[in-house]
Specification:
about 270 residues, alpha/beta, 7-stranded mixed beta sheet, 7 strands
Length: about 270
């Protein structure tokens, strides 16, 4: 694709099941700087953002089917004349139905396992049809899945990404960043509930600060106080940050600073 105007990336932190929400981020290159023009902790809120309704970070995000047409429609409204070049998705994707661990999963685990960033094992049910339907829908809309045969920098494309190794590059870290709400007890087993909340918020802010050095106008305020905050309410910030990290990987891909781990059926893209 030849793009004379601004390029854009849509990043999706896709839930593996229909019960959980999927975070969404939209970034665009403007005046030699990448900027965030849309960020929401769920598809529904991102779609409303396209209609001019600000995200209510205090409300609980809803799960449901990921409708690519609705996301593309909202993105189009937010982008004006920019061209959406890459869609990045934090979820196992493949040209064939996924039945178990793929070469992409094994390759990333070999490369980053010693740094705490091995992949989860997909199955026929998780993400199952959610993944296959998304891959096919994007291909039908001229965003084919990028595999190990796809050159870095090629677009339009759909990219599978994995935030954990991406964060190693973003934050110049030696080991996996502890920011997953569900793993809080493993990260800090000796801390109190309140202390774990504070630690999670501190890591969220560090991630946002690193992203802000590369993407301007990130409009999300990570809470400062843990008073009245539940771990469930913290998950929406995790999902939004994952969507932003996913979008940043798309930026790296457009700028030919990405590497594919996998084979001709599926690949996980990681920043160089």
């Amino acid at each position: 694709m030849k793009v004379d105007g601004a390029k854009a990336v849509l990043g999706i932190d896709a839930a593996w099941t229909l019960k959980e929400p999927s975070g969404v981020a939209l970034v665009v290159e403007q005046r030699d700087r990448w900027r965030c023009v849309g960020l929401a902790p769920s598809c529904e809120q991102f779609e409303r953002l396209g209609d001019g309704e600000p995200v209510d970070w205090g409300s609980k995000p809803q799960g449901g089917m990921l409708h690519i047409d609705k996301l593309l429609s909202a993105a189009s409204k937010l982008l004006s004349d920019a061209q959406l070049c890459v869609i990045t998705v934090d979820m196992p994707l493949s040209l064939e139905a996924i039945a178990g661990r793929r070469e992409a999963d094994r390759a990333v685990s070999r490369a980053f396992g010693a740094r705490g960033c091995s992949t989860h094992s997909p199955s026929a049910t998780r993400p199952g049809n959610v993944s296959l339907q998304l891959t096919r829908a994007c291909a039908e809309r001229s965003y084919p899945l990028a595999t190990a045969d796809t050159p870095s920098g090629y677009f339009p494309a759909l990219l599978e990404v994995y935030p954990h190794p991406a964060l190693l590059a973003l934050m110049q870290a030696d080991y996996r960043i502890p920011y997953k709400v569900s793993r809080r007890n493993r990260y800090w087993p000796k801390n109190t509930v309140e202390e774990r909340k504070k630690k999670l918020l501190a890591v969220f802010r560090r991630i946002q600060e690193c992203l802000a050095q590369r993407v301007a106008d990130i409009e999300v305020s990570i809470p400062v106080s843990v008073e009245s905050l539940s771990f469930n309410s913290l998950k929406r910030y995790e999902d939004a940050l994952d969507a932003l990290v996913s979008a940043w990987v798309g930026i790296q891909h457009i700028e030919k600073r990405s590497h594919a781990y996998g084979d001709q059926l599926a690949a996980i893209w990681v920043p160089d």
